[in-house]
Amino acid sequence: MSTAKLLTYEEMSTSDHFEKLHSELASVLNLEKLEAQLYLHLLRTGPITASALAKELDIDRARSYRIIDKMIRGNIISTTFSSPKLCIPIKPEEALKLALKKK
Description:
59% helix, single chain, mainly alpha
């Protein structure tokens, strides 16, 4: 019988940290994996166009627009009225408040 060893914080690689954060964020905010990835990327980069976001995340542009629309309806991100539109994430504190209100 084998037991899985839990890694300490120091033993985890950067990608492990990102994946753990990604999973926890998706769980807490009730986001799908790609939505959580998009939200984290927006937090890291700041305002960015949907097409640039799709390119940086290496996802189909049409799919990114669908995800962005869904996240706008969920109030996780917003867009500017400028041309081109920029996607802006809400602050993590606000996202957490929204998630707690929904539960």
